[in-house]
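Cross-check.
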Amino acid sequence: MWKRYQAIDNNDAKNNNNSTTTTTINNIFTNSSTTTLKEEKSILLKKNNNKKFILNINVKYSNKRPRNTLDEYLPINYNNNINENINKNNKIIIFLHGGTFISGDSSLYFEFGKFCSESCGLPCYIVNYTLYPNGYLEEMIEDITMSIDFIINRVNQFNNKNNNDNMNENNKEIILVGHSAGAYLSITTLINKLFESIISVNNNFKWNIKEISKLVLLSGVYDFVIHYEYEKTRNVHILSPMWKVCKGVDKLKDFSPNRLLLEGKLINKEDNNNENNHEEEVNNSLKDNWPKTIIVHGQSYITCPILQSEIMNEKLKQVIGCSGNGNSDSNNNSSNDSDSMNNDCCEKIKFYALSDFNHSDPIVGFMGIAENLEKRDFIWNLIIKDE
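Predicted model, tokenized:
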């Protein structure tokens, strides 16, 4: 059961009679020892210059699993009176949180959703998905697939209801953003969806990869085999949940997106047993249908080395047919050094190696816990800019 909240100023609240669906909230989000994530989330908003947005929490995108919920952030007039001043760029943000596949929740990213909807006028969907040990990567990927299907249908319903010709089913721009484990799930879900369309797997999720206009990958892991060996050098491989969510060390390669790209295999499908792994069809479809992709990785972090994003960047370019590695100047590139950014010859795939970023820097600026917002603004520019 989801409930709708509207962030409003105190003076507006006095004149608002719709008390059953609107809640006045005056403080920033806090954690309480008496509240659990299974209970209805209590989202506390700070009064902010009379700006407004709508927050729908715990929206069920599927009834298949308990964590099949999302939080929906909308500009105040989005679902009632869309006009040229609201989301005039037709962009919609979908965010997948990180947490090494075992932790994380949409409520932690309230400030990100608020920033998108209130400050930038963009709809934002922050998605929950099944976590280990209640599920494995197959369930997580299916959850993300279902959530994207739900969001696309929901946005289409909004626009059909309001006869919004400026954002029809063909010109909306869905930007899929993932951080850490969320980055892995973002790209792996798209790869799997593309393979499904090639192999004609029957499913109830009708969206296709062309409906995602942009993919933004922040601090992800993309080759589990290499990363597992790296974890062994640090003596943390036994504790790592990575091989557990894959159901064993021998399955690591089967869930590594950079390897899936080259082999043209679906995740956990009987078709993978066939000799024909659809490599040629996959490569052709990738060249035609893969969305614009931004890969971001900080260099000042040892737990998840930048090698992971370097590999993903190279593999994507290899299958799409781009030449050049697309690396930015890692010695000079920083959040305020736009001139030294990516001079990639392949416009579809861009890779940013950020010398002064660690693993969490790409997202903490959006969470209300970072004093320096330069990094936040740099990442937001990568997410939202068209060029």
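The longest strand covers residues 53-60. Residues 294 and 382 are 7 Å apart (CA to CA). Passed to J.P. for a second look.
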